[in-house]
Write a structure and sequence with these properties.
Its main location: cytoplasm. The protein has helices spanning 18-28, 47-53, 64-73, 110-118, 133-139, 150-156, 198-208, 216-219, 226-232, 245-257, and strands spanning 14-15, 35-39, 57-61, 79-83, 99-104, 124-132, 159-167, 172-173, 180-187. The radius of gyration is 20 Å and the shape is elongated. The protein starts with 13 loop residues before the first strand and ends in an 8-residue tail after the last helix. The protein folds into two domains: 8-187, 3-Layer(aba) Sandwich (Rossmann fold); 198-257, rRNA adenine dimethylase, C-terminal domain (Helicase, Ruva Protein, domain 3, Orthogonal Bundle). It has ten helices and nine strands.
Length: 265
């Protein structure tokens, strides 16, 4: 079969380093009866070793040429191909039980895709993703650091996360211009408190980080007044990155108790 030409519009960089592939599969630790979904199988670098351990594998792929290659290479009774965009795919539709999700995520859509995947936290055992190293540093960041932001808060609210593997550009073809890493995400509901209204929590966090250099007092104007800051024992002079996830949950729950509701699009 002809060599596939990577497509920039799909953010295609194909993993080819055998040791990195082995380390990722070892981290996923697939068991024969696990329900595993791979996002963006590409040329099958991770697909093949996953299938060697599994009875069946699901993949989500948008590139029609790659879908055709996969259909030729793997029998349908071993590999289910879900053609389409992972950004809108219903991962819960694959099976009733718990899922494992793995993938080399396209870097050009990584943030919106992570937010989409986060909504399936109650359906998964764990998730392992290859991403741009800088994105993973944001995911696992501590408060009061430059990397700490909206993505950090909303993912750490739902997951325990760990940066488990550094992947250099030369591990790919074609090599990207950035370093990559692999993150492990394990659902941990309630780890930072429970938001009464998760949509309101997301709105509060988005509003708080709308202007990073300004204080919470400025960014949350119209949502939280001086009495609210006092009731929550929060310093209105803090910047959004200074507030731990637990405090964002407390803040959203306080507003919910005052009758605030998330604005619907």
């Amino acid at each position: 079969m002809n060599k596939h030409i990577p497509r920039k519009r799909f953010g295609q960089n194909f993993l080819q380093d055998a040791s990195v592939i082995a380390n990722i599969v070892h981290a996923v630790n697939p068991q024969p009866d696990d329900v595993v979904i791979e996002i963006g199988p590409g040329l099958g670098a991770i697909t093949k070793p996953l299938l060697a351990a599994l009875k069946h594998l699901h993949v989500v792929e948008i590139d029609r040429d790659i879908i055709s290659r996969l259909q030729t290479e793997f029998p349908a009774e071993r590999l289910s191909i879900h053609a389409g965009d992972a950004l809108v795919f219903d991962f819960a539709s694959v099976a009733e039980g718990k899922l494992k999700i793995v993938g080399n995520l396209p870097y050009n859509i990584s943030t919106p895709l992570l937010f989409h995947l986060a909504t399936y936290g109650q359906k998964v055992t764990d998730m392992h993703f290859m991403l741009q190293k800088e994105v993973i540093e944001r995911m696992v960041a501590e408060p009061s650091t430059a990397d700490y932001g909206r993505l950090t808060v909303m993912l750490q609210y739902r997951f325990e996360m760990e940066n488990i593997l550094h992947v250099p550009p030369e591990a790919f073809w074609p090599p990207p211009k950035v370093d990559s890493a692999v993150v492990r995400m394990i659902p941990a509901p309630g780890r930072c408190g429970v938001a009464v209204d998760e949509a309101l929590l997301e709105q509060v966090v988005t509003t708080a980080f709308s202007q990073r250099r300004k204080t919470l007092k400025n960014n949350l104007k119209g949502l939280l007044d001086a009495d609210g800051f006092a009731a929550l024992e929060l310093d209105p002079g803090l910047r959004p990155e200074n507030l731990p996830v637990e405090d964002y949950v407390r803040l959203a729950n306080y507003l919910s108790g005052k009758g605030h509701k998330a604005k619907r699009p």
